[in-house]
Amino acid sequence: MAFFGLFGKEKKESLDKGLEKTKDSFFSKLGRAVVGKATVDEEVLDELESVLISSDVGVETTVKIINRIEARVARDKYMGTSELDSILREEIAGLLSDNKPTGSNVPNDDFSLPADKKPYVIMVVGVNGVGKTTTIGKLAAQFHKRGKQVVLGAGDTFRAAAVDQLKLWGDRVGVPVISHGMNTDPSAVAFDAVKKGTEMGADVVIIDTAGRLHTKVNLMNELSKIKRVMQKFIPDAPHEVLLVLDGSTGQNAFIQATEFTKVTEVTALAITKLDGTAKGGVVIGISDQFQIPVKYIGVGEKIEDLQAFDKMEFVDSFFKKVS
């Protein structure tokens, strides 16, 4: 927590900047929806519903937000459109606070690791192109910066680029990367990475996995095999299955989350590439709909731009007016 106290301002500025495109798009749509309207009536609520859905918040979450605002209008009898920004902010914050899946209460800048799990084993999953390997590299850098010993496993052996990229991250961060090269057995890589992490007393082992196999059955079997092999060394490994989603794909990120939760037990989410898109509303929807905590978000290119997700800070940045 001391780290956040020291770098909190920079982190917040990075979050604000990373959400600029989403904010600009959302508020321009919202402005058009209420132009010429003085009060929040059924027509305004219909327009607001369209704005939220087109901002990739998702249908289910949008309906919840609209229902909350409708209840508030009924209770207060009169509500001016000038208040809509602050009302939306309060209701979205309230919705996300109400929906707290187990393990979602991560503190600001939380890159801590459980003291009773050493090494803590993270298996990272996600389709190709979402920023999976880059996220692993940035995670390794964040842990390493905090004095943690890290081992990486290049288990996406179907893509030479993924193996080479992870090796580059290992060299850049200064952490060992276990690799058997391309077209080798991913479970053997995972086994050796966990073995290496145990032997050197590492704090965390992060295993990359293939982004896509030909069928869901193949993917399920591959991930199950990797888990079984790791469990020969550490019975409760992996301790975390982190699904990486590309925020810039909007609703497709929902589909990916749905598909991956069918083939493996996902315990945490990372949503990347939010700085280059106007689809940042997807974070609100995914955080609300899946009973899986959003643990990290990517809001820029720098290592520090992979941030621990804080719901209230996110909502604050989303609704912060540009000065």
What does this structure look like?
The longest helix is centred in the N-terminal third of the chain and has 18 residues, at 59-76. This protein is an alpha/beta fold and 323 residues long. It has helices spanning 2-18, 20-34, 42-54, 59-76, 84-98, 132-145, 160-173, 186-199, 216-231, 251-263, 282-289, 311-319, and strands spanning 120-125, 150-153, 177-178, 204-208, 240-246, 268-272, 294-298, 306-308. It contains twelve helices and eight strands. Mean pLDDT is 88; it is low at 1-7 and 102-108. 51% of the residues lie in helices and 11% in strands. The two termini are 29 Å apart. The protein has an eight-stranded mixed sheet, sandwiched between helices. It folds into two domains: 1-98, Four Helix Bundle (Hemerythrin (Met), subunit A) (Up-down Bundle), CATH 1.20.120.140; 120-319, Rossmann fold (3-Layer(aba) Sandwich), CATH 3.40.50. Strand 7 (294-298) and strand 8 (306-308) form a beta hairpin.
